[in-house]
Write a structure and sequence with these properties.
Radius of gyration: 22 Å
Largest sheet: 7 strands, mixed
Strand content: 15-25%
């Protein structure tokens, strides 16, 4: 059973550097990192010390608020360094990988014979429980809660996103196993959204034990938050969980092989990628392992774990995020521009507002950089956000409520339904250069603190 939802608003950013569907490198990292900063609201407790030996699947961190939630090592090796920031905030646990990998044996499980508690126990002990993101707020799912439903987006419309059909073509059996397992965790079952462009051609449509929804439209049609808004909006007091196909594949491998296996195909993309393609990598791998794909010297290139709208500026010395299977290489926009935006005939720049002539070449791809083309200024009241946000909320009023720390209005204008990724396009098209995602993040943090 499925339904069709056509979204009229949105924007596909025409950035160059789409990865060709070929795997051109196998990354064997010397060091990988487990990063507490990948998870909102996590208060990490260290379970290892420098010099300790670990296996792939050995606990490295635990959540102080929910000690049963563990974070495990993606490789076997030795804890090489514990990196801290200001006020001794834990940033990374770096693990020097062994040449030959050894795994904790969690045992092969027959999902059909497991109940919800048994499934939950396996996921918690293995370190894969953090794969579930709970909405509202985008935090790690609470194991004590039974959510209204679990949602999966089987397509990604973010700029230069990895192709799911290519990435998961060998993982469908594992994904089916994962769906059979996690469907026991919710009374509302698993809801999966497909793109109308290839809903009958994608292998995802053959999956069982799911409710399908078909979406058409531009980005952010692939965002699971936008999909939830149109399938079953989150009301005050309700809870839903989301999980990505990437994490479903890892969960399926856990039940089918008994191993915590975080290997993945990673798309190396972006205007500064000399050969956009896929590499075989692993969660927490160093960005330096893909530096040989850069056109220019690494100090002039921004290494982004994720996409250009919502990814993390990891830097060349950083590491791939827990939930990411994309690296974007984009030039740092440091050059001074004569006349700025007022310069005429700027055929090499894209403009959503038709300031330039990019609207005459709708199929052109642009070598974009990080230049903001202006600085923050007064919050302009306009309908520009509404043109790219296919949700029935008022983004301007929501962001102003976040700025004013007005919890009642934040609730009224939809704070429970959105995360930063859902308003990322609003920030991209904002004529005032307002840091909308940062403001929304502060608002969500306030809600978590005051509504706990």
């Amino acid at each position: 059973m499925s339904n069709n939802i056509d979204l009229k608003r949105g924007l596909d950013i025409p950035i160059s550097g789409t990865a060709v569907q070929k795997t051109k490198k196998v990354v064997t990292p010397d060091v990988v990192a487990v990063k507490p900063t990948d998870f909102r609201g996590l208060l990490p407790r260290l379970l290892v010390r420098e010099g300790d030996k670990v296996l792939a699947g050995s606990p490295v961190l635990a959540d102080k608020k929910s000690p049963e939630i563990l974070f495990t090592s993606p490789v076997s090796g030795t804890v090489a360094e514990i990196v801290r920031g200001e006020k001794r905030k834990l940033l990374e646990v770096r693990i020097k990988a062994d040449k030959s990998q050894e795994y904790v044996d969690f045992g092969v499980k027959k999902v059909a014979g497991l109940d919800a508690e048994a499934v939950k126990d396996v996921l918690l002990k293995s370190g894969l429980w953090p794969a579930f993101i709970q909405r509202p707020y985008g935090i790690i799912a609470d194991p004590q809660i039974r959510p209204k439903a679990i949602f999966v987006s089987a397509f990604n419309t973010a700029p230069l996103a990895a192709c799911p059909e290519f990435v998961f073509k060998e993982e469908m059996e594992n994904i089916q196993t994962a769906i059979n397992a996690i469907s026991k965790l919710s009374d509302g079952g698993v809801h999966m959204s497909l793109s109308s462009e290839n809903c009958s051609g994608t292998p995802f449509h053959k999956l069982e034990n799911v409710t399908f929804h078909i979406f058409s439209g531009k980005h952010p049609a692939g965002n699971v938050g936008v999909q939830i808004h149109h399938i079953s909006p989150i009301l005050k007091g309700e809870t839903v969980w989301t999980v990505t196909p990437l994490m479903l594949a890892a969960i399926g491998k856990l039940f089918n092989t008994g191993r915590y296996d975080m290997s993945r195909l990673v798309a190396v993309t972006g205007p500064e990628a000399s050969d956009p393609c896929y590499v075989e990598g692993i969660a927490g791998m160093p960005m330096a392992t893909v530096a040989d794909f850069c056109k220019d010297p690494a100090d002039s290139v921004r290494f982004i774990s994720g996409d250009v709208l919502t990814g993390t500026n990891a830097g060349r010395d950083g590491f791939l995020g827990f939930h990411d299977n994309q690296v974007t290489l984009i030039k740092e926009g440091k050059e001074f521009e004569m006349l700025g935006w007022a310069k005429p005939f700027r055929t090499s720049l894209f403009s959503f507002s038709h300031t330039y002539f990019s609207w005459l070449t709708p199929n052109k791809k642009y070598n974009m950089d990080t230049n903001l083309h202006g600085g923050p200024r007064a919050f302009v009241m306009s309908d520009v956000y509404g043109k790219v946000l296919p949700m029935d909320i008022y983004p301007v009023y929501l962001i102003k409520a976040c700025l004013a720390n007005d919890i009642d209005k934040m609730e009224k204008f939809g704070i429970y339904e959105v995360l930063e990724e859902d308003l990322a396009l609003c920030e991209y098209v904002c004529p005032s250069k307002i840091e909308i995602q940062s403001i929304l993040s502060d608002g969500i943090d306030l809600m978590m603190k005051e509504m706990a």
